[in-house]
Design a protein that fits this description.
The chain is an alpha/beta fold. Helices cover 43% and strands 15% of the residues. Helix 1 crosses helix 5 and helix 2 packs across helix 3.
């Protein structure tokens, strides 16, 4: 009897003020185990990058998908995260037998699935998905930082640090920001008198 193909799914980027939310789906190959898989938040950037390469090389199938800042504003971050997860699973080259989702909610999929709280630390396939989602999201932030260095995105990855909020007030709200998020919404509603060099 063939081995069951279990897909792990996780997302990255729910909390930041800008950019897409990223989701990854991974079906690991039981015959090619990967040592060191863990919750991406517990790993260094260098460890994540090494594991990213191994996951992409050894997994039976993997994919990364996004929901844009515009979709986050339209749907809210929870539903946009679910949309990104659905897109990631749909993009797999292999149909899994079961989908394991990190967290307490499942996206709308026509497949057997389970939500596992803390799954990124418990299930290797979810750990792998968390690593791919995180590395993809960080790479996107670095690309945005190259194009919009005034926001400091390489440092804070879009999270609402004091320096980031000050940069938004100074430079304005660029089009990749999530305008429904309270800190951005507040700046749009009350623009500083001295702002005006928006990206």
């Amino acid at each position: 009897m063939p081995e069951r193909r279990v897909c792990g799914v996780d997302e990255a980027g729910r909390g930041p003020l800008c950019g897409p939310v990223m989701a990854a789906a991974v079906i690991l190959d039981p015959s090619r185990p990967i040592a060191g898989l863990a919750d991406s938040k517990k790993l260094s950037a260098r460890a994540r990058e090494k594991l990213e390469a191994l996951i992409k090389e050894r997994a039976l199938a993997w994919s990364v998908a996004t929901a844009t800042a515009e979709e986050i504003d339209r749907l809210n971050i929870l539903h946009a995260s679910m949309l990104a997860m659905r897109r990631a699973v749909a993009a797999l080259s292999i149909t899994p037998d079961e989908v394991l989702i990190d967290g307490n909610r499942c996206p709308d999929l026509a497949l057997p699935m389970r939500a596992i709280v803390g799954g990124d630390a418990l299930e290797p396939a979810i750990s792998a998905a968390s690593i791919l989602a995180k590395t993809a999201r960080d790479a996107h932030m670095l690309e945005l930082d190259r194009r919009y260095p005034q926001f400091g995105l390489a440092r804070h990855k879009g999270y609402p640090t004091a320096a980031h909020l000050e940069a938004i007030r100074r430079h304005g709200v660029a089009d990749f920001y999530r305008k429904s998020f309270a800190p951005v919404r507040d700046i749009l509603a009350n623009p500083p008198l001295w702002s005006g060099d928006a990206a």
